[in-house]
Amino acid sequence: MKQLFLPQDYCSQLDVWQTEHAIKFVKDTFQLALAAELKLRRITAPLAVPSGKGLNDNLNGSEAPVSFQARMLGGKKAEIVQSLAKWKRYALWRHHISPGLGIYTDMNALRPDEAVSNIHSVYVDQWDWEKVITPEERTVERLYTCVRRIYAALKRTEFLLSEQFPVLTPFLPEQITFIHAEELRKRYPEATPKQREQVITKEYGAVFICGIGGALSDGTIHDDRSPDYDDWSTLENGLPGLNGDILVWNPVLQSAFEISSMGIRVNPEALERQLEIRGCEERKKLFFHSLLLEGSLPQTMGGGIGQSRLCMLLLQKCHIGEVQAGLWPDEVRQACEKAGVFLF
Predict the structure, then answer these.
(1) For residue range 131-152, what is the model confidence (pLDDT) as tens digits?
(2) In 3-state terms, what secondary structure has residue 173?
């Protein structure tokens, strides 16, 4: 997506104060629905973690976290989190959570290398969730069941929001469609991964694209993924693996819109394999990775669901800055103001 896209004749359905009330309504409603669907308990999340422990999210491996020297750590560095993908698994271990139950938290992060756009901001807020599973539950079927439950929470929130604010007409389809990245590649072999997402999401309205990060049959990957949380290794059928993205069709932006990235997490064998594939074997010595490789950490599945993304979608806004107090270039603010788009 371009840095800024302002739909022709766009006008927000809600004024500024209605928007503030609606943001709170969406957040309150969705997190309770999500917790009920997945059996999650809320816990408190860190804003910063120690550097060099492997607890911060490396994202695609090239994004540098915000770091600072902390006097209380004897001058050692700490980092603002980029997400809590690995910290949550560590927290499940420390809280002795049983299989079938999990945690969720309000995650606030900074990603200074993010290329800002209508849907991307340097400031990231999301519900990070993680739950304990058994080794026998490390299956595609278990993953899909979880996706359906998350989508049910999304649909419930959309309906209750429309009851509270009748001007917002529901638009999400009743069901979410599942497709593997390899099947998507075969359907549209000449298209780029993003173009494939656009076509398939427009067709079905809501899709879960499975198998992101591992090599497809032509040697390409649908999108990059870090090697040390989702298990995107090759399955028995030769396809990559146990993770994916939830995308819905955004009628305001007329584009595919990612709501969540999630998956079943690596076990020790998958971590070894994926670190080798990505050439990151030095991470084995880090605190988090050592715990995982020695078998101390539980088997889990988890993901992140963008809070501002979800508010932007359901409130039918054209820019994420309409639902969060973000950081924007002057030219973006000026263009939005001229077009009557209010950025917080």
Answers:
(1) 999 999 999 999 999 999 999 9
(2) coil
- Strand pairing partners for 102? 40, 131
Query: What is the Cα–Cα distance from 70 to 24, expressed in whole angstroms?
Result: 34
Burial of 120 (0-12, 13-18, 19+ CB in 10 A): middle
Q: Which residue range forms the structural domain that includes residue 315?
A: 16-338
**β-strands 177-180, 206-210: how paired?**
parallel
Query: 0.90 cut: is pTM over it?
Result: yes
Q: How many CB atoms lie within 10 A of CB 274?
A: 23
Mean pLDDT computed over 27-34? 97
Domain containing residue 158: CATH number: 3.30.930.10
Q: Compute how many other C-beta atoms are within 10 angstroms of the C-beta atom of residue 25.
A: 18
pLDDT (mean) for 302-317: 96
Residues shown for the chain: 344
| Domain contains 8 | no
217 DSSP 8-state letter: T
Please name which of 228, 299, 304 lies closest in space to residue 53, comparing C-alpha atoms.
228
Measuring CA to CA, which residue among 305, 289, 222, 292 is closest to residue 257?
305
Q: Are 122 and 328 in contact (CB under 8 A)?
A: no
Considering the domain boundaries, does residue 4 fall inside one? Answer: no
Is there a domain that residue 3 lies in?
no
The first and second tokens of residue 266, run together, are: 């690596």
Enumerate the active-site residues: 57, 111, 126, 245, 258, 261
Residue 187's closest CA among 171, 164, 209? Answer: 209
Q: pLDDT per residue over 167-210, tens digit each?
A: 999 999 999 999 999 999 999 999 999 999 999 999 999 999 99
